[in-house]
Amino acid sequence: MKARGKIMHLRVILAIISFILMNLRFFEPWIRAGVTGISLPVLNCFSMGVMIVVNKPSSTVVCAMGALQRMLARGQVPLLVIGSLLVIGAILGRAFCGWICPFGLIQEFLWRIAGKKNKIPIEVSFLQDAVLLVVLLTTVLYGLSTAGMIFLKLPTYGNIIDETFYEGPFCSFCPSATLLIILPSRILEAVYTGVVTLTPWAILRIAIVAIILFLSLITPRPFCRWICPLGVLMGYFNKVSVLTIKRNSEICVNCRLCEIECPMNIDITSYDKLTTKRCIKCMSCVNVCAKKALRLEVNK
Amino acid sequence: MPKDCRECIFFSNNRCLKLGINIEDPSSPPCLREEQGRIVSLSLEDLEKIVSIGERKPSSVEEVFAEISEQEEVPAEVEVEKEEVSLEELIGEKTEELPAEKPPVEIVQVASKPEPAVEDLIKEYNSILENLEKNKNNLITLEELRDIIGDEAYESQRRELEEIIEEQRRKLEELEEKAISKGAIKCSQCGALNLPNSKVCTRCGYRFASRAERKAKEKRKPGKRFFFAILFLLIGSVLIYQGMINGDWSYLQSLIKIPCSSCLKGLTP
Asked: Which of A34, A125, A169, B269 is most buried by a 10 A CB count?
């Protein structure tokens, strides 16, 4: 095994193990697994497994983004979810994106097998912030208005608006759920019944996933860099996270191998500490550095 | 040698940071020229001319070459005039103009000279630095040739080289002190001196931190980040505890027991 590939192999193995553990209820006929209710900053949908084998979710943990939206839409303050994000962010920053998130790893895998091209080196960090802001505002406003109507004993929205959308505006488009739930279920349906039922919304979602996967072939992790609201939320913790990648400018020879290897397109040589909200602590830069100028250290 | 400005580390915002000129067509770098069907880099003299023009910020590469051609025309005339003066006459003039009584006057002239500019100091420093590195390499080569040249010759030449290296080091220290006091930047990668406000090292291409970045680095207090991390951990723990009391835990558990309608939007009509 090449030294360069060690970290990547380790990440893939860890991501597969995490994916199995996060969806342990899939194997319920053989393993007795319960629901933990732990909210993690990964796009592992809590409806995972539905309509694939049996019509019940296989997830043992909760996607933090989904839980945040659901609780805000109910007019609740998501104390447990915010607390979990604060604890994970304070220690690891955005490391879950690099090591656990299945959708992020699929994009990176595609980019690596396509030859690590980067034909779109554009960064639009404001877009991610905007997506996060729109998602949170929509759910908060929906939650407050619903709670207000109940309090004033007024009739609720009922069939006037599509409540499933307002309870989870991001979930309604989530490409991870589309790729890991909707697509497999439709494929299985086609295999077993010979008929595929595709609603316009499902076609839209599948088209979004297809665009993201195509972009992954020509630029690294497009969804994580440009859209993912959960990623940008965790990225803010990179400024204070205990574990940080540091660059020793005395040793560094500016060969920029790390920048070529970086799946988040970070200009690493212009930082002494990788506290940028884009860093997913995947350690690819640390692994590729021949001078050992980059190291994972405790942030002081 | 990059064939296109866009591949060069000195190219930024349609401008060559090395030559200090605007580049209109990056596909034809001003530091290269075609010679008998081959692309070769310009001589050091031509580059210096471009740099001297670049400091006055011309609008385009064409303007730079126009100025170079003008400059080239003038020295040609001077050279013709010089050829008319014979070598003997030159030697005669020199010997006649250097009488024994003159030195005290010359010393006064040297003492009244203005302080050298930072550009001159940097140029001198960098040329000495390069010579020093060459001498160091010579020392290594001498060591390898020890068996061939014999111990005596080796010792004498080694001593000679070491003296030169020592002298060059002393000179470098002096120049560095003077140049840095005038705002020159020393490259942490190769040790070369660069003009104040340089963005990249002219010798190795190392990108310097901007003044704002350097100030921010100095201002940053150690331990601040760690304090915030601990604070976040504490707040997070309190929120988790509070959330569990409020029943968030059981709500989240109930969430994953039933399929989520938002996540599956579009799956069923």
From this structure: A169
